Amino acid sequence: MPVVEISDGKDDCKETAVSLQPKAELEVFTRKLLYVVSILRLNFIEPSHWSVGKVINAVVTTFMFGLACYSLIYTMHTTFTKTHSPMVMSSKLLLIAWAIQAIVSLVFLVYWQLNGHMKSFHRNIVECQQGVGMRLGKKLIITNITWFYLIIFLEIFIIGLYNFFYYFGTTQTDFAIRQSKMFYYPQLRFVNSFITLYTYIAWNASMFVYIIYTNAAFLEVKYFNDELEKLDGTADDVELQLLHKMEAYGRLCGVIRELDRIFRLYAFIMLVIIIPSVIFTLMMLNQRIHGLKDLIICMPSIALCVYSFLGVTVAPARLHDEVSRSRICLIRNESIWFPYRRDVFTIAQVLSSHMEQYDLGISIWGFAILSRPLVLATFSVMAMVLSVIIELTPAPHVVEVVNCSTSSIL
């Protein structure tokens, strides 16, 4: 790996350009997200100073945030000022939960940019190992970016489809009619759809910033572990190599803790909203699905709940597993421990003790680390809630059969 040096020689200039390539690749990945963010006028990273474009972004963002809050308050007023059936109430509570998630994600997306968290993370993760881990595992990041654009396409398609059925459908529910008067004139209903699409795309952008940054840290830790397993313990400079590994591991720990500081509150709020959203979805499915048509209608709700839950939990759990593997990789490399050499053994033992940091990862606001056991425990709780809901929900078709048989007897 070339070393960055500042010199007047031409050779050194070429060497510097090569060593800065990982940073350029990391910025390219982020720019692919910022392209959509810029269209929404939510880009506050570039330029660094407050230009005219940045002021326009601030005005547009504030205006859309105000409209989104008004839309949320109006939906809550429409939902809670009239009695609904359990199925309708659960579906409307689900819409409210999604709206809150989207607005919160919009706020965090702007906050991360204005406070310099994104730029700081770019700089610090590249300094760990010159971004080699990201360069070798960039296929994972490219897959994330592909999913980012695919989900945006699906959001546009589904919202457009719902609007098509609203304008060209034969029957309208009372809730839909009341919602169409959000801006007084029913003809302005498309404004509510535009607000929903805007906030959902912002939600998608903040979610993938969270996923891609976590996966970037995962790839760097994975590269560190792979190199640690392949370290030749019989080399003459093994002590120096272990010291370099100790320094790299310390930087990786700093990056992961910075990642936790950036996303811990976001992960906590998302999980607090996602778990009730899943429960509302289960209630709606239990009372509504009676055939294939109902299942197809409910598929967007199911997909959005699955996406939001897996998006918040999978990447941090993978990172935590890889961090936990570091000490195992060191211990499994027998060439470091045998034959016994006092200096090598001492350095390896100190490095092993540094790796006993079981709280490395993205936490839920400091309460618990997002790990695989926590994800499985959450699934278990939601499965238990589903069983309770099914057990307590009355079956109306049984009553209908009894009534029919009674009338026939009379």
TrEMBL record:
Origin superkingdom: Eukaryota
Membrane spanning stretches: 55-73, 93-114, 147-169, 190-213, 265-285, 297-317, 362-390
Signal peptide residues on this chain, from the entry's feature table: none
Keywords from the UniProt entry: Membrane, Transmembrane, Transmembrane helix
PANTHER family, A to Z: G PROTEIN-COUPLED RECEPTOR, GUSTATORY RECEPTOR FAMILY
Protein name: Gustatory receptor
Species in which this protein is naturally found: Ancylostoma ceylanicum
